[in-house]
Amino acid sequence: MKVTDVICHVLQSKVEQPFTSARGWLYTTRASCIVEIRTDEGITGWGECYGPAAVNRTIIETQYRSRVIGRDPFDVEVVWEDLYNRIKDYGLTGMTIAALSGIDIALWDIIGRALGKPIHKLIGGAHRTEVQAYATGLYFVDMDRLVEEAVEEAQEYAEQGFRAIKMKIGLGDPKLDLRRVKAVRETIGPDVKLAVDANHCFTVPQAIRLGRAMEEHDILWFEEPISPEDHDGYVEVTRALDMAVAGGENDFTRWGFRDVIARKAMDIVQPDVCAAGGISECRKIAAIASAHGVECVPHAWGSAIGLAATVQFLAALPDTPPAFRPMPPMLEFEQTPNPLRDQLAKDPIVQRQGIVRVPDGPGLGIEIDHAILNQYKVA
Ligand code: CA
């Protein structure tokens, strides 16, 4: 089998109720670069790249596309190394790797479709057939109702059956953050897990101080307390707090994660399959994490394709550590309204009582709705 074409689709949808996080970007649109890879056997695979879609598309079209055409999709890691070698001299991190991730995922989708097997059966097998999802939400929308809106949204997720929720913090006022976290914890009660995500807005002392104050609210993990470049700072925050510290959605490749993991700068690393190098590379990152006793719980923030790729990867992740009643890695299931996530697959991934069934169809286990693809395609 040979690749005959690599096509990028830039999809974009409008966000009806714009929201923000501690980063301060106002989300008014959601966009994704979707990668379609066609073959001479009529099998088509789909992938997705995290980050600025137009840049991903340009990198693929100018740097990668011609090197993928003519290749056998089963040589997926050979292709990975070749593409990486093509760009490594010019700066390694970020968007070039996200673009490579979309190609890698699409090649795995093709392999699965060719063999009639879901991807997780090709990368080690099913450690689980369903995953527990946590609801990502509780962004900042109405600046006059920051506590009230968080309470209402958390209540909705709890009523939908989610057993874990992740909320945004980083309001520029630790007392307000604490008040909001306390109100959410009181609303959902002691049995729903609660993680917090600061989108790297704090200094080391700010993070340690707020982290200690949040500990009484039984926080599952403190995500991105400080800036991702500051690995020394992560070591300090992680050592200082009893709660787990997480991060890594803006780290890339096995080399990017190697030092973070080896130094135990975080208790939980969160590679994104659409950003960190695809399924091939995230397996390697997970292996490094496993060797160091660090948990790997992938980040996910994209369309139905990225979500499906994350579920396939998660299904094949071992429990860390294995146990009589293990605490398996959870699926990040982002809940802000996004038609690219909810409508792009004919058979979308859904949660029931906080549980997502791992699709067992071939490849990613989803079928793309071409009408939706065309409806949201802007380039
Ligand atoms: Ca995050």
Features of the shown structure:
binds calcium ion; TIM Barrel; 3-stranded antiparallel sheet; Enolase-like, domain 1; 10-stranded mixed sheet; 2 domains; 20% strand; alpha/beta; 379 residues
Provide an overview of this structure.
This protein is 39% helix and 20% strand. α1 crosses α3 and α2 packs antiparallel against α3. It is built from twelve helices and 13 strands. With 379 residues, the chain is of the alpha/beta class. It folds into two domains: 3-116, Enolase-like, N-terminal domain (Enolase-like, domain 1, 2-Layer Sandwich); 121-357, Enolase-like C-terminal domain (TIM Barrel), CATH 3.20.20.120. The strands form two sheets. Strands 4, 5, 6, 7, 8, 9, 10, 11, 12 and 13 form a ten-stranded mixed β-sheet that branches. The longest helix is centred in the first third of the chain and has 21 residues, at 95-115. Bound molecules: calcium ion (CA). Calcium ion binds next to loops. Calcium ion binds at residues 197, 223-224, 249. This is D-galactarolactone cycloisomerase. InterPro entries: Enolase-like_C_sf (IPR036849), Enolase-like_N (IPR029017), Enolase_C-like (IPR029065), Mandel_Rmase/mucon_lact_enz_CS (IPR018110), Mandelate_racemase_C (IPR013342), Mandelate_racemase_N_dom (IPR013341), RHMD-like (IPR046945). Keywords: Isomerase, Magnesium, Metal-binding. GO terms for molecular function: hydro-lyase activity; isomerase activity; magnesium ion binding.
